[in-house]
Write a structure and sequence with these properties.
The protein is of the alpha/beta class and 448 residues long. The protein is 55% helix and 9% strand. The longest helix has 21 residues. The radius of gyration is 26 Å and the shape is flat. The protein starts with a helix and ends in a 20-residue tail after the last helix.
């Protein structure tokens, strides 16, 4: 997971500070030396590290820390605040044009995830009620147009293309005219990239910019490239005056230095982060939430938002009725599993819970495949067995195990867990009134 190593190192530093009743300047200096090393190892730009450590040190030797009853916590608070300031203070939203369409020009090097994240952003905007259009302006990379068409279809967004041989500037101009004619209120232009920055690339991008006057120019930056990501961002910003950054591949085994360096070096905000390979795995970038993740404080707001995205109002009402009538069965359990799977990786979700040590999760068996195995067992049952699991005798258990390719012990374990869950559901039905929101309204349940 991103920042895992940095988070572990910083927490070790803070653990030593928490154990002290009072802090001397020597304690602060030693701690800041460890923080500096941790940031450098995380591939954070040297200029950024120097400025960050200086700002923290200056505040940490102040009277409010030195005379505090909990100086260790005060230092953590300062580090948290400075991390937020480093990454941009607040969430920078996508600028929407006062008169449609909003034109977003996606730029970046080849392999940075530009095409995929053009589709991810378009899909995200579609979920928010917009009518986006994707534009295939990468006319050089083999199969680039086809790739955009494939991902565009997957997110339900139309893709504008023209005959092979048409230059990128003409495609962009015609695409904007098409968007106006067909009431597309957002246009995402997927431009060409190169393996490195060259004059020809920048010249074409400048001509597209002059022709369509984009509302925003977003730079796709591969977080896995570390220091190079910062250099790329600096070069593109100097040539095109970008409006923001989309950090891609933030789910990889990356040190995360780009996320802490890009804004400081370019002065441009990180607007979105790609959190996985799936086309719905993109999030707005919140500096405060990322800072909390880095310091092991969790990220409950993002976790809640992920749950709300998968929340099905109609299904929840039906579930509430079944719980009240004590008819919660394995079909309902299967539906809840499907919602959990859609939320993403279990380990990543748990790491967002405050107080959970992300590093310690490496030693805990949180295999997402366990959900798939549970699903396979339930799907191997007959409809009647799912509705009334109490009829599942030894012979039926053997048949179910054979049907899903697992052991009878696995089937027994699942049925026992479900029995425990049914007991809990029965206990809940006696006190559902406690789950009401203030002033009445909808009720919230454990299984939603």
């Amino acid at each position: 997971m991103v920042f895992e190593s940095l988070s572990d190192k910083l927490n070790k530093v803070f653990k030593s500070l928490r154990g002290k009743g009072k802090l001397s300047e020597a304690d602060i200096k030693a701690a800041m030396r460890e923080v500096k090393l941790a940031l450098l190892e995380a591939d954070v730009n040297f200029k950024v590290v120097k400025a960050f450590v200086s700002a923290v040190s200056e505040r940490a030797v102040g009277a409010d820390v030195m005379e505090s009853l909990t100086p260790g916590q005060q230092v953590i608070k300062i580090v948290h605040e400075e991390l937020i300031a480093l990454m941009g203070e607040t969430n920078a939203k996508l600028t929407i044009a006062p008169k449609p369409p909003t034109i977003v020009m996606m730029v970046g090097l080849q392999g940075s995830g530009k095409t995929t994240h053009s589709a991810k952003l378009a899909g995200l905007m579609r979920k928010q009620g917009k009518r986006p259009l994707l534009v295939a302006c990468d006319i050089y990379r083999p199969a680039a147009v086809k790739q955009l068409q494939v991902v565009g279809e997957q997110v339900g967004v139309p893709v504008f293309t023209m005959e092979p041989g048409t230059d990128a500037v003409t495609i962009a101009k015609h695409a904007v005219a098409h968007a106006k004619e067909h009431q597309n209120d957002m246009v995402f232009i997927d431009t060409a990239g190169r393996l490195h920055i060259d004059e020809a690339l920048m010249e074409e991008l400048k001509r597209i910019r002059a022709a369509v006057k984009p509302t925003e120019i977003l730079l796709a930056v591969d977080a896995m490239t570390g220091q190079d990501a910062v250099n790329v961002a600096e070069s593109f910003n100097e040539a095109l005056e970008i409006d923001g950054v989309v950090l891609t591949k933030m789910d990889g085994d990356t040190r995360g230095g780009a996320a802490l360096s890009v804004r400081y070096i370019t002065g441009k905000p990180i607007k979105f982060v790609g959190t996985g390979e799936k086309l719905d795995q993109i999030e707005p970038f919140y500096p405060d939430r990322m800072a909390s993740r880095i310091l092991g404080m969790g990220d409950m707001l993002t976790l809640i938002e992920k749950a709300q995205e998968q929340f099905d109002e109609k299904q929840a009402k039906e579930l509430e009725r079944k719980i009240r009538e004590q008819r919660f069965d394995l079909n309902d359990f299967l539906a809840q599993l499907a919602q959990m799977k859609n939320m993403g990786n279990l380990t990543e979700m748990l790491a967002m819970v405050p107080g959970v040590n992300a590093g310690a999760l490496k030693n805990v068996e949180l295999d997402d495949r366990q959900l798939a195995r549970t699903e396979a067992i339930i799907l191997s049952m007959t409809p009647k067995e799912r509705e009334k699991p109490e009829i599942i005798n030894a012979q039926r258990r053997q048949r179910i195990a054979a049907g899903c390719g697992l052991k009878v012990e696995d089937v027994n374990r699942l049925l026992k867990q479900f029995q425990e869950m049914q007991k809990m559901v029965k206990q809940m039905t006696g006190g559902l009134g406690r789950f009401k929101k203030k002033g009445g309204g909808k009720r919230r349940f454990l299984f939603r």
